[in-house]
Amino acid sequence: MERHLFEELGHWYKGNLHTHTQNSDGELPFDTVVNMYREHGYDFLAVTDHWHLNETKEEKDFLLLNGAEWDVNDPVFHIVGFGLERDPGIERGMQAEDYIKRINEAGGLALLAHPAWSLMEPKDIARCEGVFAAEIYNTTSGMPWNPERADSSHYFDLWASSGILMKAVADDDAHHYNGDEMKSFVMVNAGDLSRKSILAALKDGNFYASQGPKILDAVWDDTERTLTLQCSEDTETVYFSSNRCWSPERVQHPMDGKVVFQSVPKETYLRATLIDDMGRKAWLSPFAI
What does pTM read for this prediction? Predict the structure, then answer.
């Protein structure tokens, strides 16, 4: 029996869920940042300044989601909340669990930011129950702005191997605007460009993370135990990750934008990474098989 991993709800929308302005430690004014993303083809944006909640603004061709980033130290957790119906009432001294609970109670979605940059202990994901996703890639967490901790994909394999199938988004977390902007994004399939529809699609996992390559379709066949991906033509390489270390088809090169992976025995989950002709990546979230 086949199942499509994405539900076709109407349209694919491009967005960024984590960025900063001069309202906290970003280099550019709020309006400049919003207009920059809008003019470069983004359909929605969450401005998530540290401890500063802005307003949601819905227009016909662009959705601005309110949001903020709240941090906890020792251990380090950075929790992004966006799309809230009201101020969640988060205060310093609370724990990450409290942040997540209050964001959800306020009608928003909670996102775990840059686990690799935070040097998060993988086991501490148990304290993040209630986040809808985590950042598999965070642009500004890499060079030249930070040590090379932009890619958190190994965390997703450790979590999935222990039974926690975390959804993956990619974000800029732009601060500097000298190359950390408009690089990593999330593609969401939703019925329309409204706060309600975008948040529902994100909560349901109807999205993938990317820097450029497109995942046009993803189909899992329970009978054949195969994953078939339809990719944009610029995709040169696709590799498949799971709780097993080896298979003869783990790395593939698409033919006419299509790859088929045959699952090996004892695999409990799969995820996929696409790489295009410019070295940019896209990520399919881990799913149970």
Answer: 0.96
